[in-house]
Amino acid sequence: MTVRIGVIGTGAIGRDHARRINQVLAGGKVVALSDVNRASAEAVKADIAPDATVYATGEELIAAADVDAVLVTSWGATHEQYVLTAIAAGKPCFCEKPLATTAEGAKRIVDAEVAHGKRLVQVGFMRRYDAGYVALKEAVQTQTGAPIMVHAAHRNPTVPEAYTTPMAIHDTLIHEIDVFRWLLDDDYVEARVTFPRSCARTHAKLRDPQIVTLKTAKGVVINTEIFVNCHYGYDIQCEVVGEDGIARLPEPMAIQLRLGAKLQNAILTDWKDRFVASYDVELQDFLKAAANGTATGPTSWDGYMAAVTSDACVVGQEREGEAIAISYPARPALYA
Ligand SMILES: NC(=O)C1=CN([C@@H]2O[C@H](COP(=O)(O)OP(=O)(O)OC[C@H]3O[C@@H](n4cnc5c(N)ncnc54)[C@H](O)[C@@H]3O)[C@@H](O)[C@H]2O)C=CC1
Ligand SMILES: O=C1[C@@H](O)[C@H](O)[C@@H](O)[C@H](O)[C@H]1O
């Protein structure tokens, strides 16, 4: 079966996911596009999906009879409305992170999906599909003993002026928040944020870098440095310290050079290149489940837990150094 896909939001990642579905993956075809900037949807139609219909609104796209499943890749603040509409229509929906920009919004999606009674939503936490993280999880579960600490870093070379201090949590750390819950099979109970002096390359609305410390229910302490003007590259680091040993996330494959009296390894500079393979695998997973009218992979509950934790971290930014407690309701059986 070919799953007929509608894409809402055809900017950077929407365009890239449309390309994946039409040119890389099996079992899907982009038949519908929508963007508040119609010219953007028309450009994706011209370049990638010539047979697609361009709709004026995301709601019209979701209602279209020939759309079997939906990709929500618009700005974060608009995700909730489209995911709720897709659930109401009973259509599988892949939603880029964040699932919603508030924990209340994410909870409304959880409640709607639970009321529907079947999984329909996959959240775009692609790191769970990264071969390095999958291998790391295997090592943590089978070799290094019970985890005690995690040391991590999320570094971007630069961010635009519009990127503010809370975005370091909602837009950037959110990947670590999700992937460490999955990696450790654990939940968070506490968050704390500290700021060293800001780096010279940051701007007025951004305190950069920052260090977020999360504590889990099993007592693991996770320290993550978020440094989004690090200048030198896009660098994702993670080391899990266990009872018997230490497991470290592999570096992306790179040719090692012995050149000019130096031993060199190139470092990537763009998140698109770092996680290109995981985006392919996560969307292939979505197409496979959508063909059966359902969804697998990261759940609405995972999106909700990430939103609850993000909110606590943002409070932690406002109350530097203070431990902020994290609490949430019981997990519904749909997400067991
Ligand atoms: N998983 C990952 O690694 C990544 C995820 N993202 C997420 O994907 C989403 C989109 O990010 P980008 O593509 O980088 O942004 P972008 O700004 O390049 O594209 C977003 C598009 O959505 C459109 N849009 C905004 N509001 C809309 C609405 N109400 N209805 C329809 N279209 C609307 C905009 O006109 C724009 O074309 C964000 O939530 C972002 O956090 C982005 C980059 C990487
Ligand atoms: O989701 C992403 C971006 O929105 C975000 O700005 C980057 O920091 C992340 O590494 C990338 O994966």
UniProtKB/TrEMBL annotation:
Entry-linked Pfam families: GFO_IDH_MocA, GFO_IDH_MocA_C
Keyword NAD: yes
Molecular function terms from GO: inositol 2-dehydrogenase (NAD+) activity; nucleotide binding
Keyword tRNA processing assigned: no
Top EC class, one word: oxidoreductase
Record EC number: 1.1.1.18
UniProtKB keywords: NAD, Oxidoreductase
Reactions it catalyzes: myo-inositol + NAD(+) = scyllo-inosose + NADH + H(+)
Chain's role: Involved in the oxidation of myo-inositol (MI) to 2-keto-myo-inositol (2KMI or 2-inosose).
Protein family membership: Belongs to the Gfo/Idh/MocA family.
Protein name: Inositol 2-dehydrogenase
